[in-house]
């Protein structure tokens, strides 16, 4: 896949004025399960995980080392009753995984789902209209920094109303 199709300025303007679709499958996706998952992440991350107590909510945060230096920035999703999904930057995937798992208690299960997860970002002022058309009748976009579900051509997709472009849109996990 090319890094650019029509040129960076034209593509930037398309996302700002319409919609852009990005394959960001290179990002890291980690899941954490168990009754101790929330408390473990509360100790590892500086932001308050209580802010995403409601199932389906998300939090943008950093992850720091022992000295307070930033290891990476992450998005943490409360994806199940005792389950959290973290999206990490691709360049720090191994470092993030090693750091987090080294600090988890034994009662928390961790799974790196990066190699089996495709992630497509649909961003721009028309992004929600495009995704709504593809998802079909009755689908409603999740609130900003929240998760929802959809089906595209019979494929179940987790829909996160997040992104890094500065425009509204979603990220589709499948």
Description:
It is a single chain. With 174 residues, the chain is of the alpha+beta class. The protein has helices at residues 8-17, 37-44, 93-102, 127-135; strands at 20-23, 28-33, 58-64, 70-80, 83-88, 109-112, 119-123, 147-152, 155-160, 169-173. Strands 1-7-10-9-8 form a 5-stranded antiparallel β-sheet. Strands 3-4-5-2-6 form a 5-stranded antiparallel β-sheet, covered by helices on one side. A hairpin with a 2-residue loop joins β8 (147-152) and β9. The protein is globular. The two termini are 19 Å apart. 29% of the residues are buried. The model has no long low-confidence stretch (mean pLDDT 93).
Topology:
Blueprint: H1 8-17, E1 20-23, E2 28-33, H2 37-44, E3 58-64, E4 70-80, E5 83-88, H3 93-102, E6 109-112, E7 119-123, H4 127-135, E8 147-152, E9 155-160, E10 169-173
Antiparallel strand pairs: 1-7, 2-5, 2-6, 3-4, 4-5, 7-10, 8-9, 9-10
